[in-house]
Each structure stands twice: as C-alpha cells, then as structure tokens.
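Regression test attached.
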Amino acid sequence: MGDQLATGSRRGLKPALPLLLPAYLWLTVAIFLPLSAMVFFSFMTDLPLAGKEWAFTLGNYAAFFSQSLYSTLLLASLRLGLEVTLWCVVVGYPAAYVLAKVLKGRSREAIFLLVILPFWSNGLVRIFSWAMVLREGGILDTALNAVLPFKINIDLMYSYPAVIIGLVHSYVPYMVLTCYLTLQAIDDSLLEAGRSLGASRLQVLKRVIIPLSMPGLIAGAALIFVPVVGSFMEPRILGGRTGTFYGTVIEDQFVAVFNWPLGAALSFILLAVVLIILALAAPVLRRAG
Amino acid sequence: MAGVQVANVSRSFGAHKALDDVSIDFPDGGFYALLGPSGSGKTTLLRQIAGFDFPDTGRIAIGGESVERVPVEKRRIGMVFQNYALFPNMSVAENVAFGLSVRGEPKATIAAEVQRALDLVQLGKLGGRRPHQLSGGQRQRVALARAIVTKPRVLLLDEPLGALDKALRVDMQIELKRIQREIGITTIFVTHDQEEALTMSDRIGILRDGRLVQEGPPEEIYDRPQSEFAATFLGDANIFRGDATGNGIRLPDGTAIAAASGASVAVGTKASCAVRPERIRISTGAATAGADIANVLKGRVSKRIFAGNNSTYFVDHDGQTLKVIVQNSGAERLAEGQPVVLSWSSESTVLIAA
C-alpha cells in the first residue's frame, strides 16, 4: 500500500517536471544568482571593478553595529512599517467589508476598480501627484481655504505624515484584496446565526467576522510591512529632509555613494531583522487565526 | 414560551410580492410546519418572524408583544439554519455557549447550561470537537443545542433536515420532535417536504405565491383540502372537474361524482372533486353502487408500479389517468390493459370550488 503510494507519487512528479522547470529556471536566474552576488559583495571591501583592489571583510556588517545611526534608522523604519500597516488596516478593512458583504453586482465592480487603480498607476506619478496635493498652496491647502471661513496653512509636504499618506495610498490595495477574499468566504448565515443568538452587530464583528478574516489580515499585514520597512521612494520624495529612513540609506549606498558592499550588507541585516520579526510573530498570529 | 401571531403581513421585493397579506396564529407550544414549493414565501415569512427582514405592512407578535420593528438580536428567538451555520472558528461547546456569553452570563452558568443542552441532543461528550470534525447529523444537533440553550421564546427551523440523507432524516425527525416536546417550545418549521410536514407537525400552513392557501391540523388538510393545490401538494389526489350538482359534480361524460364534504358550490357552476388514491377500490368484476360506494367508474389499467408493501395502478378513464394505491394483501394482481371498475364512497370525496 505504502509502496504503491510512493511509486504513484514518483510517477506523478516526472510529467510535472516540464511544468516546473521554467519557473525554477527563472527563479534561479532572476533571484538566486543576483542575490548570491549581493551576499558575495557584502563581504568585500570594494567592488571588483576597473582593476580595483579588494579583499574579504566583515567590516560592512560591523559598520551597522559600530554606528548607532543605522540601528536608529532601522528602528524608525520598523516604526514606519508598523504605522503604515495599522493605517492600511484602518482604511482597508472596512472597505473590504463593504465590498464583500454590502455591495453587490455592478456597484461592487465599480468600487473594486477604484481600489485597484493605484496598483495600475506608476509609482512615481502616484507620489508626485501627492506632492502637488500636500504642498503649501497645493490642492489640499487651496481646497480647505476655499471652504473654511478662517485662513489655515496646510503644509504637509516634506513631513512624516506625508510619507505615511503616500505609503498607505500605495499599499492599501493589498489589505483590501486579502481581506476581501477572506471576508467573502464567510457565509452570511454565520452572521445571521450570531444575531439570532442575541449578539449585536458589534459583537458579531468582534467574535465571528474578525476571527474568521484573520488570515486575510495577517497576509495583508505581511505583504505591507515587509516592503514598507525597506521603502525609499515615498520617504525621499514626500519626506524631504525628514524622510531619511533605513531604505533611503541603502539606496544612497547603491546610487549616490556607490558603496555597494555596505548597501548589500545593510540590506541583508534588514532581511534578517524582518525574518526574525515574522518568526516571532508567527505563533501569536497563528493562534489568532 | 409564547405563541406567535402574524397578522396581514405583506412584503415585496421590487415588483415581486413575496408575502401577500398573510395571517397565521402559531399556537403556544405547538409544532407548526410552513409548507410550500420554492418561491412560495415560506422562508420569507420565517425571516420576518426571526427579524432578519421587516414586513412592509402588517403585525408580528411574539408572546403578545409586537416585534415587527424589533431587530433580531432583541427578539429572543432560536434559529436553526439549513446549512447549520456553526461558527468554524469555535469548538462545539463554544458554539453552544455563544448565545449565553454575548449576554454576559457568568462562566459557571454557561458551562452548566452548555453541558445540559449538549446532553439533551445526546452530544454530551463532543464539546471539545470542531464543527468540521462532526457528521451532518451531529452538526444538526449542535445547531439545535445552540438555538435552544438561550431559552428562546420561539424556535425557528429553516429546512433543517434538507441536507441529511433519507435514513438520518427520519431519525432526526423523531429526535427533533422528542426535544420539542421535552422543552415544550413553540416551533415553526419551514419545509418543502410534505411527508416531513405531515409526520412532525401538529399544524400545517400551506403557502403558494406569497399567500396562505390553507392551514390547520395535518389530518384536516389531508381529509378536507379546500383547493386543488392543497389537495395535490399535501399528499396525492385524483382531481375530477365538472359542473356542480348540489351534492357533487357531473363529469363531461355524464358520470355523477358524489361528495359528502367540502365547499358549498352553486348548482351548475364549475367545481372539482378530490379523491385520495388509497381510498379507491379497484376490481375486475362489476361493483354496484351502494350506500358505501356511491361512486363507480369504469376504466382500463395503463400501468402498475410495484413498491413492495403496495402497488400503484394508473387507470385510464375518459382521457384522464387516475391513480389508485392498493395494499399488497396477497390478492390477485391486475395486468396492464385489463378493464377494471373503480369505486369509492362519497365520504372519501371532497368538493372544491373552482
């Protein structure tokens, strides 16, 4: 019986090989090789270009621990990731709920399109259009002063809130999509059963809907938190001087300072920290899910 | 416990009248079946009583208290859903405890009440299981325990046996009836299965196109249907159509059908007579019309279906096919194509106004 199963599965793998091969070939070429090169770089004193001298070193990793600037920035980036993720939950979850449980047919499709739209627009265009909205004398400033009877000065440009706004805008579709999928899978009769048992709408939300949609919340949070911690475009353009984060420092190493080894080392430290955080959070999140 | 009164309730969805001026008095402690084909409005009516939806017009009262604008969670009802709707993120015990814990009952009370409810549905040992680890019949029992543990005023059941296979369904019918008697709760049961309605309930309401067609005890509806629809939807019936004669009807071929009960219909107007297939006697010899066999018809067997304990004969008479059910008593079986004489009493015949 066991033998039959084993040969059966072996026979099942062979025909699947041609199907798997392209994906694995692509992953090897596109991700594994460059990443290995980066690991290699991160242990070098300088780039092996134009006959420059280089040697192996741990100095790039040591730099992270010897200069408090890096860990301070990493903490700031982690805090940024946490805040953006929270705002995405606050903004995205109710939208996903309305899409999955309230709207039907045409109106659902239309609203869905509005949510997905930022996904399809170019990231730079998205960020620069926020710049036009947020700057002093910009669209938000002008609109508010046209409505309000008193004069106010909205100058959110080059500030922490501007970075948050831009990042939330970019990443909220992930939260909407993952939560929408899990919310949609919840049978309406479960919500009706809850209320027939005397639970208010709020109690049904707390005890039935949120626990059942936890997998979507967790998936959305992971999809948002990880890239936001390493983000550099929104902080640089919308944050200006206040927009120095761990991600922008890494970008500087690659683009401005041309110190690839340090940039690579900082990247892998970030990767390690994020993996540790996710690993620590996993048991807690699994229990919640 | 409390009775439920539904008075002149109407509910439309767009142009569709799902409920049209329905009035039913559900007696306190009774088991009432709402019977009808799909789209008849039976589930809509149940949802009005539950409070998931409010009527456009009309009154609904539970225990004498008007509730037609009271939301579900304040109506103190218990409901069992067609798909059971157990919370998949909770254990069996947590499912049953849900209604008590949202009311903020103390933990010790909840534990005791949950155990009592699970014992009542004979699942006392399965409190720790998850719903997906249970069989269909067990889920059904959990859903029932969850619905009654809060001591609701009325128990609403939406086709709760629909998803079970035949053998299990019969078991659950008996079980459901036992539990209902034991706690004496007013129960309203939606079904499209006439057999289920007949065997379980002490009153039946038949709905069609959003209207109440007839209601009363099962025996009364079965013996004295007031419409062709009621006669054919609850059980099987042979329907004769003709002109009213004062004590029955005359068929187009001149045969008179005598009916001892039913509506009073003016002589000469269109009317029908309904006869249950098991009330008709079938024979090969000549049967003379007497006091107990007022009605005699000649015909020819077109088909016989053998079903073990009984046989169904389809008999052609003047272009109409009549159904006769005969208990298998060991007597001679009739062949297809054989000429036969059908006879039945006027007491077995119900006159129905067109």
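Expected vs. actual: identical. The two ends of chain A are 36 Å apart (CA to CA).
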